[in-house]
Amino acid sequence: MxxxxxxxxxxxxxxxxxxxxxxxxxxxxxxxxxxxxxxRLPSAALLEPFATSLxxxxxxxxxxxxxxxxxxxxxxxxxxxxxNRLSGAAALAAVAEAxxxxxxxxDLGNNRFADVQELAPLAGVGVESLDxxxxxxxxxxxxxxxxxxLIPSLKHLxxxxxxxxxxxxxxxxxxxxxxDEEGEEGEEGEGVEGEEEGEExxxxxxxxxxxxxxxxxxxxxxxxxxAEDEDxxxxxxxxxxxAEDKENIxxxxxxxxxxxxxxxxxxxxxxxx
Length: 273
Description:
This protein has 273 residues and is α/β, with parallel strands linked by helices. It contains five helices and six strands. It has helices spanning 2-18, 44-47, 89-99, 143-150, 171-272, and strands spanning 27-29, 56-58, 78-80, 105-107, 129-131, 156-157. The chain is globular.
């Protein structure tokens, strides 16, 4: 019990130091920090606070002989456990249960797996890259063909595909980028649609503004025509007024002429008397 307590205390210090910069780390590296005296991982309680955020976990060179107690890690994509003392199907069954749904890269190099059938728990997971370099199993006759046949999802074993072509260093990065791009495509598509809708709206608004400008021009033309009509009417009114004045003058002149003749006739009669 003392050894378990000492291990947990050492693991707790190591985990605290590795995660002090963030409360939800995506990567947790505990390589060579603790040399387990019990051959076990840190207790599940020490890893559970980060379980939902972890995408990569590395515990290399910790003298691990068992993976019992590995907590569920629903986002884990890469698990690195090289340079330990792991062996047997039970260790890999714990891996399949903890993160089999999301695991893509598994490094078990320099452990003690000696038979291909020990890898059977990995047959039902989606692991694409598996490293078993310097494990006794890698010396088994037909090792590569048997492992590829056992794990259908496998693309690379010990850094090479089924045909022996070596994996490029950028392959892993490209796989991760493809996953990220798939998640971003939906957002970009929504952004493009929004931009297109915005452009259509701008076009419609521009057409409406052009229409309003056209209406303004029509109003101006109508105003000019009305002003011309009013000017013409004013000129006609002036002509009519001049004609009326002329008629009034002539009528007055005509009416005064008989009176003048009458007065002249009366003066002549008085002179004869």
